[in-house]
Specification:
By secondary structure, the chain is mainly alpha-helical. About 75% of the residues lie in helices and about 0% in strands. The protein has 2 domains: about 60 residues, Helix Hairpins (Orthogonal Bundle); about 190 residues, Four Helix Bundle (Hemerythrin (Met), subunit A). The longest helix is centred in the middle third of the chain and has 34 residues. Its main location: membrane.
């Protein structure tokens, strides 16, 4: 039998178990975390098992994607166009995700309920000073956005040494941001259980911090790929997607700083 000749530029992926296993792992993680938050027995261990499974499945799934893009040549211009639209739509969904937290914050702060005293911030909440760690973290994220753009330009120009340096700086700045945010949480005199202010503050800033961790991991994988010569001046969408995600994280933080830290603490 003669081999079939592909007469289109699209990638018809081989059958893979990873989407199904990723869905099961995500369901296990979510169910376990819900059980843990409601103090059910075994909730923590179910969350841990689901999270480890999700990370493992993601590793093998993305390994296959890297192999298809770098070594098998399946990511043609048509495929890259589809991937770009997919990443853009994913970021749009993330915008909607954070919009819910901003909606909750402004609904609670612009018209404070009588149950919390009718004022914002609620009585008993000693808000964090926005001109200390939050301002420093703002400068760190803005600087990381600049170094990320530097890395992108260096890849386009074929300056591999500058790309490695700037991308490493971006990852280090992301780690510094996470460390400072952890210290801020440790020193805060309120918790997620302290009414609507604590809930909105820790959900909004905490999920942003989680996105910083995801973005840092994304960029670290790109650093490893860059070190292994996976990117060329014309073929580096993996890094472009990471850069778009990182800039999105930067923009969300600016809104968080202005609304929750500064305006919300007046």
């Amino acid at each position: 039998m003669s081999n079939l000749i592909q007469r289109h530029p699209f990638h018809l992926v081989d059958p893979s178990p990873w989407p199904f296993l990723a869905g099961i792992s995500a369901l296990t993680t979510t169910s376990g975390f819900a059980m843990y938050m409601h103090c059910y027995s075994g909730g923590f261990y179910l969350t841990l098992i689901g999270f480890i499974s999700l990370v493992s499945v993601s590793f093998f799934w993305w390994r296959d994607v890297v192999r298809e893009a770098t070594f098998q040549g399946h990511h043609t211009k048509a495929v890259q166009s589809g991937l770009r639209w997919g990443m853009l739509l994913f970021i749009v969904s993330e915008v909607a995700f954070f919009l819910a937290f901003f909606w909750a914050f402004f609904a609670s702060s612009l018209s404070p309920a009588l149950e919390i005293g009718g004022i914002w911030p609620p009585p008993g909440i000693d808000v964090l000073n926005p001109w200390e760690v939050p301002l420093l973290n703002t400068a760190i994220l803005l600087l990381s956005g600049a170094t990320c753009t530097w890395a992108h330009n260096a890849i386009v120009l074929g300056d591999r040494s500058s790309a490695l340096t700037s991308l490493s700086l971006t990852i280090l700045l992301g780690a510094l941001f996470t460390l400072l945010q952890g210290m801020e949480y440790y020193q805060a005199n309120f918790s997620m259980s302290d009414g609507i202010y604590g809930s909105v503050f820790f959900l909004a800033t905490g999920f942003h911090g989680f996105h910083v961790l995801i973005g840092s991991t994304f960029l670290f994988v790109c650093l490893l790929r860059l070190h292994n010569h996976h990117f060329t001046t014309q073929h580096h969408f993996g890094f472009e997607a990471a850069a778009w995600y990182w800039h999105f994280v930067d923009v969300v933080w600016l809104f968080l700083f202005v609304s929750i830290y500064w305006w919300g603490g007046l």
